[in-house]
Amino acid sequence: MCALRIDGRACDELRPLVLETDYLSHPLSSVFISCGKTRVLTAVSCEEKVPSWMKNQKVPGGWVTCEYGMLPSATTERCRREASAGKQGGRTVEIQRLIGRSLRMAVDLENLGERTLYLDCDVVDADGGTRCASISGAALALAIGCKRLFPAAENPFKELVAAVSVGIIDGVPMLDLCYEEDSRAEVDMNVIMTASGKLVEVQGTAEGAPFSRAQLNELIDLAEHGLKQIFVRQQEILEKING
Amino acid sequence: MCALRIDGRACDELRPLVLETDYLSHPLSSVFISCGKTRVLTAVSCEEKVPSWMKNQKVPGGWVTCEYGMLPSATTERCRREASAGKQGGRTVEIQRLIGRSLRMAVDLENLGERTLYLDCDVVDADGGTRCASISGAALALAIGCKRLFPAAENPFKELVAAVSVGIIDGVPMLDLCYEEDSRAEVDMNVIMTASGKLVEVQGTAEGAPFSRAQLNELIDLAEHGLKQIFVRQQEILEKING
Amino acid sequence: MCALRIDGRACDELRPLVLETDYLSHPLSSVFISCGKTRVLTAVSCEEKVPSWMKNQKVPGGWVTCEYGMLPSATTERCRREASAGKQGGRTVEIQRLIGRSLRMAVDLENLGERTLYLDCDVVDADGGTRCASISGAALALAIGCKRLFPAAENPFKELVAAVSVGIIDGVPMLDLCYEEDSRAEVDMNVIMTASGKLVEVQGTAEGAPFSRAQLNELIDLAEHGLKQIFVRQQEILEKING
Amino acid sequence: MCALRIDGRACDELRPLVLETDYLSHPLSSVFISCGKTRVLTAVSCEEKVPSWMKNQKVPGGWVTCEYGMLPSATTERCRREASAGKQGGRTVEIQRLIGRSLRMAVDLENLGERTLYLDCDVVDADGGTRCASISGAALALAIGCKRLFPAAENPFKELVAAVSVGIIDGVPMLDLCYEEDSRAEVDMNVIMTASGKLVEVQGTAEGAPFSRAQLNELIDLAEHGLKQIFVRQQEILEKING
Amino acid sequence: MCALRIDGRACDELRPLVLETDYLSHPLSSVFISCGKTRVLTAVSCEEKVPSWMKNQKVPGGWVTCEYGMLPSATTERCRREASAGKQGGRTVEIQRLIGRSLRMAVDLENLGERTLYLDCDVVDADGGTRCASISGAALALAIGCKRLFPAAENPFKELVAAVSVGIIDGVPMLDLCYEEDSRAEVDMNVIMTASGKLVEVQGTAEGAPFSRAQLNELIDLAEHGLKQIFVRQQEILEKING
Amino acid sequence: MCALRIDGRACDELRPLVLETDYLSHPLSSVFISCGKTRVLTAVSCEEKVPSWMKNQKVPGGWVTCEYGMLPSATTERCRREASAGKQGGRTVEIQRLIGRSLRMAVDLENLGERTLYLDCDVVDADGGTRCASISGAALALAIGCKRLFPAAENPFKELVAAVSVGIIDGVPMLDLCYEEDSRAEVDMNVIMTASGKLVEVQGTAEGAPFSRAQLNELIDLAEHGLKQIFVRQQEILEKING
To answer: Which chain C residue lies closest to B158 (C-alpha atoms)?
Structure first.
């Protein structure tokens, strides 16, 4: 046990992970993911057309895109509703671009056909790591959605993707930070990986002080350790879904 | 039994009603309300200041206001995210003004003190009647929130409020319309009432053909019948909450 | 005479009503309506195409829609110009949706053909009841416009519509409230009716205290009494207009 | 008589000018000006504070500013409502800046005291020359407003201002262009002058072909001729107004 | 020498003028113009389509339009970035409309073919006269761009255009005002001319006190004097450019 | 020499780097940086107040923030001007957040005092790597600005920061990608470091295929190699600047 963590977890221990499928009535597929107290509703909707820039540039195939949002009451202090503020904040834009980019790596866009898959990630309760939870949840929802849209032989879904945050707090590397840990972290890193163990995106940010190459490596090791467990859980569920 | 209704309900029968309290970690209080397949997350947050117009006009006391939203995947066809569209649609604005107005009737604003209570109503799944579900859920959340904020003797909460939709379909008045019924209704009415049986707001709208005074009365009778049952359910829960 | 009213009117007495047609040079038809000191310029313009959502959903026929605005100098305190504020306020949106919805009831949209009729309602002077004046004026302008657009046999205009406000002030039901009365009303109701006496929309709102079924009925009686007089005036003018 | 003009006017003849004062109930003063078929409602409202930039820069005295708008039904083809479009168009911005700048020349801002005078110019019917009509109307409204706000000895209003358009059509200089003339003009000029005959603003624009110094002078001569008549009319009315 | 000017220039002397062509890698043509310390990057880009309003109105030929901007660090006090403010200010809109209008006079739009030429004028350093510098620079860039786009026989470019500011300071007319002079000027005028000596636009504005016809003429004389020198410089450069 | 690179550079070779200081007249400091054909104007302006959120949260000290923009003519195809589009695009927002975050690591915010330093990064010519060029240029401008604002003993500037892009193209790791290389890269990484060799931010993104840990390490090695040379150049210039 790791005496340093506020919830008594070991430094290399994930928060309890729950993946609930088809929580919603209407979309093609949905996954309600909980990572500890962080809860995100992810959903996949399919529209039978592509963005106009794809048409203009005559890019073949389809598109996968993401929109991210937070319910105003998802945070400790109520956060302002972006719809009434009249625009999405910079943090929101940055996160939804990251999610979209990562999940496009999971799909063979050319074989998707002329359609757009929308990933909606809405944070119901926030306790740190919402972008990673969104990716791990939406990747599963995307896998399920593709299974439903396509016969197995034509399924453009390539492989599962998952994300986890790691960070250094008081000099100690830790896995899957909650909000309080995240606020105190000297270094904060999000690691996004494929089920086959390759990196999709690495974003490491010094918050208080710059970090060394050795620390970078230690953090990615820790992330890999956690991601393997997430892949097992995603896989179990995906196998039970009929196409 | 009413052969006309798609879910086999009697014409004067409510959809199954579920009220789950404190679904969220952070806000002062929250109620997750389900009316059949319509599910709305309502939450109350308290800010210790009042809108600037109140200060300028030196209105004494506090304020209660509402913001309403729909998750993009809450509807049959994915609806556009208002935050990325850059503004709230006319329907959203109309609904949140109605909810705010109705719930202000439940509270003695002068005795609320210099604070604003935000009611966030976010539709997770939509199957008709989302504004009524929002009101019935938020009224309970508001009652619970006030119980927590104030000693019993100073509680500015006056009485519970609830709302239900009624309508005329193929000439037959029906209670608590689901989406498919709502789309076909000739007349659509929302009735908002206090627990003591007085009207807070009546909004009756001819959709296909204008209606008579007799029909208006029949519809309000039907609404009262349903509202009484909702008040019983709200009351049961409220009594179990400790201030 | 009703000692309670600031302008000495009887409680069931309308304000002086003036309907001036073709006040404007350019639109298909226009009515400048005065209800006491409330003056609204209503105009009908015709565009030979329908909104894109109608085309996409392959709804047959045409559309009627409304835009409402207030001149900044129409109110006691200058109100902010919405064009420079960069958006229409919630009250404006709510009112123009109500007007559009009510006036669509006056027209057989399918037989309107593939065209959109725009109703512009611009308040030049405001003294309460601007949405009702807008409806009564725009309904007449719409009737005149249709007479001009269509041969009598193909005219899709069904019947005139009018609106009036009623309210309870110090416990007394009153007809056609001016601004000062409206501000003090305990209950405020807008009643929209067809010339044949059926209800198009009823919106009753408790402002200070909830109201009883008996009061609701009393108010609608009062409204009907006033609306009959408005229909007589509209009709007189419409008959003199050549198609 | 000038055979070239569509309404039979002489080339140096103004359109019929009507100036109606206090057309509106609420503002400090208002002038409804008609120049032929162009009709503009101008109004002056007073707010007892100055823009924040004046406070920050510690500029002494007050401010005069203008907002200009067109009713959607004021033009041959209905023009889009700027409030619903969500912003003022470039033409509107350019016009209201011109009006504000010109009218500030009519007032001694330092002696205005810490207040802002809003000039609202709303075009009810447009047939060319709306910016000039706005200036001539608003200048009179401003003079009246100042007379009402200040004792004669402290009145910061300096002198009347008026504007008129001139242009060259088929090589012939003409005064006070209507819309059809304006659309065909090779050169289009707005001349704004003080009652004492000095220039406040001259804006000459080549529309089809550049123009010579001689033509520039001819046009200003023509404008002066028209402006003298407008000043007589403004003056007559202003003298009858009691402070 | 003119003792009155802060940089020791004679009253009828231009600031040092530098015209650097093809400063940018990507656009069709570009001119980096310096008028003393005022520096503006002007560029011409060509798009092979016309604005939708031209298509709808079936106007034959092409279009020339301008967008103007200032780098936030171009001014004494950092000015707000319009992209992050969410809209272009009134001054920006007014200037870019003026530039576009003036430069359209330099081109035979019908013979331009179905294309739009974008003029981007971005102020890198501002010391007064940015709109005039933009016009003189963009006119040369436009001439170069057309030479590159068209064979000589089909070149729709008609003739060079240039602009200069003049003003009256302490009663003395001066040419090509710098920022400090501009801020103190009683009258401020921008004169835009063709190389053949005709006027394209004259905008004279009283800043402190209205001005006489005699002063107007004196100012235009002074402007002509300066513009002749600018045309010589533009011409020299243009002749060296190969089509 | 590396036969693979379009400009003949070795795979581990930087593009020609030019750092020109005080290019602009008005701001506290400015650096015009060229990395090959990519040219970015970076400037530092100081405002003697902090953002309101800092005041509200009573965070001590000052703030460093960045705004990033591209001139419309900086790209191969003219890109839309964000000021006229009415908002900053997602890419812009993401980049300016990254720059601001990285540069805040270079400064001791608490000792900055109650002031905000604005970093404006405006891309004049874009040929890949604009965010990295912005960081390397703005870091130097920030160092110079702090030297001018503070006596040496109180200077809150901690150490220089620089950024470079690396990527894998056709399986080969390359340093400092130009636009064409960037478009074809399988992996794209931005590495931001301090002069003392610690990491500030690492952002590695799989564009075409996910990447291995070994590749990640190779890329960071390559980046370090390039960054050392940039630090030498920044340092040389900084030493010559007098405080």
So the answer is: C209
Selected for mutation to probe chain C from D45, D78, D134 (highest C CB count within 10 Å) is: D78
List all residues 6 or more positions away from B28 whose beta carbon is below 8 Å from its beta carbon.
Answer: B43, B44, B45, B46, B145, B148, B149
- pTM of the complete model: 0.93
Question: What count of CB pairs under 8 Å joins A to F?
Answer: 82
CB proximity under 8 Å: E 67-86 to F: 67, 69, 71-76, 78, 81-86
Chain E residues inside the 8 Å CB shell of F47: 78
E170 DSSP assignment: T
Cα nearest neighbour of C71 on chain D:
D122
CB-CB contact of B49 with B116 (8 Å): yes
E81–F92 CB contact, under 8 Å:
no
Closest C-alpha to B167, from B129, B130, B195: B129
| Total Cβ atoms within 10 A of residue D1 | 9
Structure tokens at B76: 């049959």
D77 three-state secondary structure: coil
pLDDT by residue (tens digit) across E131-162? 999 999 999 999 999 999 999 999 999 999 99
- B61 sits in which H/E element: none
In whole angstroms, give the CA distance from residue A41 to residue A29.
Answer: 11
Cβ–Cβ < 8 Å for B67, B121? yes
Of A96, A205, A212, the CB nearest to F201: A205
For A24, name the nearest residue in chain B, comparing CA atoms only.
B125
CA distance linking residue C172 with residue C189, whole number of Å: 13
Q: What is the pLDDT of residues E188-211, one digit of tens each?
A: 999 999 999 999 999 999 998 899
Calculate how close chain F gets to E63, using CA atoms only, in Å: 16
Distance between CA atoms of F187 and F173, rounded to whole angstroms?
9
Query: How confident is the model over D163-177, as pLDDT tens digits?
Result: 999 999 999 999 999
Residue E33 has pLDDT above 70, yes or no: yes
Contact D200 E206 (CB under 8 A): yes
pLDDT digits (tens, 9 = 90+) for F93-150: 999 999 999 999 999 999 999 999 999 999 999 999 999 999 999 999 999 999 999 9
Indicate the SS3 state at residue F239.
helix
Mutation target to probe the B interface, by most B beta carbons within 10 A, among C201, C212, C218, C225 is C201
User: CA-CA-CA-CA torsion for E130, E135, E136, E142, nearest 10 degrees?
Assistant: 140
* CA dihedral of residues F224, F229, F235, F236 (deg, nearest 10): 170
Which ranges of chain A have pLDDT less than 70? Answer: 1-3, 243
The residue type found at E132 is C
- The CA–CA distances, whole Å, from B187 to B8, B11, B205 equal 21, 15, 6
